[in-house]
Amino acid sequence: MLRRGGAIALFTGLMFATLTTPPALADDVRGGQQPVIRTLELTRAWQTSKGTGVTVAVLDSGVDPRHRDLAGSVRVGRDFTEGANPPGVAPNRLHGTYMASLIAGHGHGSGGKLGIIGVAPEADVLSVRVILEDEEPGFREFNSAERFENVVARGIRYAVDEGADVINMSISKELATREERAAIRYAISKGVVLVAAAGNDGDRKIDGDFAPYSYPAAFPGVVSVGATDRRLRRATFSNWNSSVLVAAPGVDIMGAGPGDEYWVGRGTSQATALVSGVAALIKAKFPDMSPPLVARALAESATDRPPGGYDTGTGFGIVNAAKALAEAGKLAGHTETATGAQAQDPTAPLAGGRAGPVKVIVRDEKLVTVYAAIAAAAAVGALASLAVIFILVRRVRRAHSSQDA
Fold this sequence. Notes:
By secondary structure, the chain is of the alpha/beta class. It has helices spanning 26-32, 34-39, 42-45, 94-104, 139-144, 151-161, 178-189, 268-285, 291-300, 321-331, 365-378, 387-400, and strands at 2-3, 8-10, 16-18, 55-60, 74-79, 106-108, 114-117, 124-129, 166-169, 171-173, 193-197, 223-228, 246-249, 253-257, 261-265, 337-339, 357-359. The strands form five sheets. The chain has a seven-stranded parallel beta sheet, with helices on both faces. A three-stranded antiparallel beta sheet has the order 1-2-10, with no helix packed on it. A three-stranded antiparallel beta sheet has the order 3-15-14, sandwiched between helices. α4 packs across α8 and α11 (365-378) crosses α12 (387-400).
């Protein structure tokens, strides 16, 4: 795990191991992905959506556009770290390539049956470099120079303006800034789904009640993702607090690395990329679906739900791509307008003697509950006006008492 002085941390995972002779073992890579494919029910989900037409911005350390499992799917965007490395030094792009492959890898060979298959294999990737890896010579400069302080906020706005539908942020800061909050508000106002890692500090307890909050994951409106282990329980390193909305597999996850290599690792980074892929599947099928409804589809359809329906370790449960698409299909029928007579007098005609459409706000208690979960998680300590938020907070606290910390 890398740390950025004022607080940026890149979740490279607690363990990385390169696979030997990756070209010869490329077929074994797909076999190694089977646990994730089964858990997320991707084979069934792909019958409905593969992410066609969707762009996922990967705000990370850069993506290798020439990797055979990503070739043709990556557009290299801005490098907001420019000037940190000495002139002529090429970025490593390990972490970013790894994340991009989990989101939109399409494999290679006959029928794309070799190598990494991402959750949304027909989606496009926009690479936005907002962080350096610790092996890069400019890492210290990047962490200390004031001019790099708001690279994440700038990267979010850039991705939105470049047409991203989903933004994956397998990165974290310990402190929030106004610029980042404003950038996230801007993204959501444009219909962009934001997904971020809950963090890998699960062994750090704050007053014994929860693990540290991470940003941008803990901002209102961002889908905060925790990681599960092989038994689909909260991974010990995964942050547990009320910002966590959902979880996904985060241990022994196969992914691609620069230069046609393959890697296996663990972390909330990997879990986040998988959830971003599911969000891409939803946006491809329902392009006009708002970020809050996408978040609800992810949460409402989650499997392995904790006792009581929610806990601080895995949120509402483990994301399931097939079920999330089905839930999104139900939500797609919701509308903010309905046809009916005028609200003040159902029998009164409109001007000209015709009955006509009237604005009706659709109210949905479950939807409000999910909104409340996101808001309460991201604004800990803030007073909320809806009673349901207080109910949810009480539920989270009860669930914590049985949490495997």
